[in-house]
Structure formats: C-alpha cells, structure tokens
Amino acid sequence: MNISTKLLCLSCRGSRMVLGRPITTNITNAGDNLFRPLGKSMFLGFQTFPVACLDCGYVGTCLSEDERSGLEKELSKV
Fold first, then answer.
1. In a 10 Å sphere around its CB, with 0-12 CB exposed, 13-18 middle and 19+ buried, how is residue 7 labelled?
2. How far apart are the first and last CA of the chain?
C-alpha cells in the first residue's frame, strides 16, 4: 500500500491518502486517465491517479507531485 503524506484529502483535509494506479479496459479508454486544462492545447495531458482517504473514505483522483509541478509550469508559460 502506497500511503502519500504529500496529498491532503479534499473532504476532511486528512493526510492518509492511498494512491492507486489508473485502470483502462482497452486502448480506446487510455485518455480517460489524463487531465487537460481547458483553453490550453496539449497533445498528451497529465496522468491522474485514483486516491482513497483512510481517514474519511473519500475516493477521487489526483495528480502526482511530478505531474502537478509539470502542470504548474505549463500553465505559467505565456
């Protein structure tokens, strides 16, 4: 189990978040696990990962720290 202390839960602000791996059933669903900001033309986007909070049970998706950093750099380009 991969518990990340860098992530905070959106629901309870707890820090016991468990990262998962994106699951795709076939090649046509590969884009379902990518995030692309609106108004920014990007070919690939940023990989998202499923997360679960061990404190409150919230389940959602997030970006890894590397992906978040890359998104921040991409959005700061003028």
1. buried
2. 39
Domain boundaries, given as residue ranges, for the chain: 3-76
Burial of 29 (0-12, 13-18, 19+ CB in 10 A): exposed
DSSP state at residue 32? G
pTM of the predicted model, to two decimals?
0.62
Instruction: Please write down the HEC assignment for all residues of 33-70.
Output: HEECCCCCCCCCCEEEEEEEECCCCCEEEEECHHHHHH
Q: Cβ atoms within 10 A of the Cβ of 70, count?
A: 14
- How far from 25 is each of 15, 31, 32, 53, 69, CA to CA, in Å? 30, 11, 10, 25, 28
The string of pLDDT tens digits covering residues 2-35 is 555 678 888 999 989 888 877 666 655 555 688 8
